[in-house]
Design a protein that fits this description.
Number of strands: 8
Number of helices: 9
Shape: globular
Strand order of the largest sheet: 1-2-3-4-5-6-7-8
Largest sheet: 8 strands, parallel, barrel
Strand content: 5-15%
Radius of gyration: 20 Å
Distance between the termini: 60 Å
Mean pLDDT: 92
Order of helices and strands: HEHEHEHEHEHEHEHEH
Low-confidence stretches: none
Structural class: alpha/beta
């Protein structure tokens, strides 16, 4: 039996055939880390804003044979009724998909004018005690309804939810995912978020491959990255880099976003047609990425469906009495 060939780089054979130099991959750049199940990559469908959008995603993923490990929602726990959350929890459980809901409130939606300036102010962070407490309330409500992944956009909220998890006030199997809008851009900050309790860290989609290698020298915490980013995150389309993103960023969630589409947060029925159409197209974009990986011989190493835990990570210790 022949050993499997190494993945090829896009266009490598054709370019080599006409004498055009093709850069060789440096084995030293390869991430030494993986998920606890041995896989190097998983998939995520973002911006799944409610049960109806989820139903569209599940139908399309079956039709196009797109494996999904996680779906995430951006509007927040507080924008869903208990019945809607329960329906999403049950639908995802039937398919072995992790459901991740955003905690709120956030600075972009309250009275703080700083977030609307050119500098962006404090962005999505939770402003003041009441906003922090609101995020905690969302977390308690969502986990009581069966949600086991919470999306966070504030360092203080992350640390607080991690401490509640460690104290048993949140279920031990709850995972905390850091938002792309507050994602770290250097190895030191990435390690800090891991220490604060993040189990999955969304880095900005404009980080270079070298940046991913630098991060992997200091942390093995799972990384989330948009292969195609929405416009408010830059609109980057990095499909041809998917294999290298996995090789250098593993363990990595490939996020199938959508550029050139309008924002839908906070979601409501007035945005229904847009939400359903973009949900459907995100699944199709995922199929394009998976087809590309297969053509390059780089589609191996996917975690088994149903996998969700991050493995052992390094955490900071809370000071006594705090």
């Amino acid at each position: 039996m022949n050993a499997p060939s190494a993945p090829r780089r896009p266009g490598a054979e054709a370019l080599a055939g006409i004498g055009h130099p093709v850069p060789a991959a440096d084995p030293a750049d390869t991430s030494p880390h993986s998920f606890p199940d041995g896989g190097t990559w998983r998939t995520e469908l973002p911006s799944v804003e409610g049960p109806e959008a989820l139903a569209v995603v599940l139908k399309e993923s079956s039709r196009l044979d797109v494996p999904i490990h996680r779906v995430s929602q951006g509007s927040g726990v507080w924008m869903l009724t208990d019945a809607e959350i329960t329906e999403m929890v049950e639908s995802c459980a039937e398919r072995g998909i992790e459901l991740c809901l955003f905690t709120g409130p956030r600075g972009t939606w309250d009275i703080g004018a700083g977030t609307r300036t050119d500098s962006g102010g404090a962005g999505l962070r939770a402003r003041g005690h009441d906003a922090l407490a609101g995020c905690v309330e969302d977390a308690l409500r969502a986990t009581a309804l069966g949600v086991r992944c919470l999306l966070v956009a504030d360092e203080g909220v992350l640390w607080t939810l991690h401490r509640l998890r460690a104290a048993g006030r949140l279920p031990a199997g709850t995972t905390l995912k850091l938002s792309a809008l507050t994602g770290p851009v250097n190895p030191a900050s990435y390690a800090v978020y891991e220490g604060l309790g993040a189990d999955s860290i969304n880095v900005p989609s404009d980080l270079t491959l070298d940046h991913l290698t630098e991060i992997r020298r200091v942390s093995r915490a799972p990384m989330d990255m948009y292969v195609e980013a929405p416009d408010d995150l830059g609109g980057y389309v990095r499909m041809y880099e998917a294999a290298e993103l996995i090789r250098r960023g593993a363990p990595l969630y490939l996020k199938f976003g959508l550029s050139r589409s309008p924002g839908i947060y906070p979601y409501g029925a007035q945005l229904r047609d847009t939400a359903l159409a973009t949900a459907r197209e995100r699944v199709r974009r995922g199929r394009l990425v998976l087809d590309l990986l297969a053509r390059l011989g780089a589609d191996g190493g996917m975690s088994p469906l149903g996998s969700r835990l991050p493995g052992d990570l390094r955490r900071l210790t809370a000071p006594e009495g705090n």
